[in-house]
Amino acid sequence: MEGIAGTYGHEDCALVGRMLRKLRHRGPGRKRIHADDGLVLGARAAVTDSAVRNTPMAERDGVVVASDSYIFNRQALRTAFAPEASAAASDAELLLGMYEDLGTDMFGYIDGAYAVAIADGRKTVLARDRYGIKPLYLSGGVRRGTFSSEMKSQLLAKQDFIPFPPGKVMVKGKGVTPVRQKTTYVARVAGDAGAKALRSTLMGATQAALEDGDRANILLSGGVDSSAIAAAASCLTDDIDTVCVAYEGGTDADMARKVSEELGTDHREREYEEDEMLDLLDEVVYSAETFDYPLVRSCIPNYIATHSFPDRDRITLCGEGGDEVFAGYDYMREIADDGRLRRERKLLLRAGHLTGFHRVDRMTSSASLDGRMPIMSRSVVDLGLGMSRSAILGSDISESKLALRKAFADMLPDEVVTREKKRFSDGAGSLTALVRRAESLISDAEFDRERTALPGDRIRTKEELLYYRTFAKHFDSPSATRAVGFTPRP
Q1: How far apart (Å, rounded) are the C-alpha atoms in residues 34 and 411?
Q2: What is the pLDDT of residue 95?
Q3: Which domains are seen in the chain, by residue range?
């Protein structure tokens, strides 16, 4: 986890310095600024106990690379394109070697999450991974502009901005083009063979996410996604810290405790109450950079969880992506056609940078944690998308994400393997308390009057208005409002 910021087509070191201060939580370990004629590139990095050396930038022969990333196939890339780099080279050093060899074609070979900025003489290159797992914002155009990792830093440019589009690369003065994927992992398998292949593939992705580190943090909700990640990690290390948060009436804590006992993790539970949620709301919305009410609901317990880990230097894993890849949402059971179900999952994956993936990034980085999602490895995603409806949706609602359940059924408690899907905020118990509090704080007249602050039905409920009031205090910008994701609710 890193924070990056910069200017191109103009040189403003003071602005980049202020941006990096806003991003200190993304990299409290090291900071560096590179300035050249007509550009500035800044980055800061966290310190983790990963075997990979974490440096904010790499530089050689006038080319400078800054990278907020984690790369699942980094060893294969190093062998193929940067053999001079050591096994402990940082992502920035690896990407520098790839750029020298491949230019901007390099991005098509990467399996991972990344937001990359390259200064090559007076030329600036920006790129973002295909699902936008890593954040990046942009003000300006292809000849002159400013970029950074979060809205709060981008506001300092005092210009309109947009999220940099996922799966795209921009070269200063030339334009924006799609990242052309150079490798594929598609393998269509069925039945028990699919579950076996998934187990092996997810184990590999988890090992790659840990970068051969021998310790891990895991956000453990007790659902099948995070439990599968915990099971995979437990085969790789016996030093795992797990955290689950709980509100009175939530169901996650009991399930997470059972998983922890089965796998032998060092487990912590964190209980919270309604007053604490309200006390944290300002800080959570500022960190999350959203007022989308389904997202804020899940951000609050997630924020508490990420700030509960005793060791912030460990890589932190979670199960995000499981619902999108393996059809975990209830409405998907109504889709009978394999092709249509595959297209629906792809649509959700492409929207994730504004919803669930956004939450994971902001909540882990708010605690200066290096958060990673093994399920979003291209090998796992492509394997999952290649599975038929019958392989991922059983006959009963408790058999959604069937292949994932089967893959680790022998390592997890039966009640977890057969547990029905719950929204994170439901399982954590935050949903009803937040709705109730919004109803008590906002009258019908206030709602009717204030919801017109945004066009259409963007402010849908009193709960969302409660969050928007807080958001507007910190992000008084039409660009920020437009950049907020929209999670539909049936």
Answers
A1: 49
A2: 96
A3: 2-178 (3.60.20.10), 191-433 (3.40.50.620)
Helices marked H in 13-67: 13-22
Phi, psi for residue 147 in degrees, rounded to 5:
-140, 155
Q: With a cut of 50, which residues of the chain have pLDDT below it?
A: 427, 490
How far, in Å, CA of 444 to CA of 433, rounded? 19
Of the candidates 53, 183, 170, the one whose C-alpha atom is nearest the C-alpha of residue 110 is: 183
Distance of CA 213 to the CA centre of its chain: 20
| Sheet of strand 30-36, all strands in order from the earlier edge strand to the far edge | 30-36, 39-45, 2-8, 145-148, 137-140, 161-163
Looking at the DSSP assignment, which residues form a beta bridge with residue 40?
Answer: 7, 35
Class of residue 329 by CB neighbours under 10 A (exposed 0-12, middle 13-18, buried 19+)? middle
Q: What are phi and psi of 330, to 5 degrees?
A: -55, -40
How many CB atoms lie under 10 A from the CB of residue 410? Answer: 9
Per-residue model confidence (pLDDT) at position 423: 57
Distance of CA 15 to the CA centre of its chain: 26
* Distance, CA of 413 to CA of 417 (rounded, Å): 6
- Half-sphere CA count of 110, side-chain side, radius 13 A: 28
Residue 270, beta-bridge partner list: 245
pTM exceeding 0.85: yes
Name the nearest CA neighbour of 274 among 96, 470, 434: 434
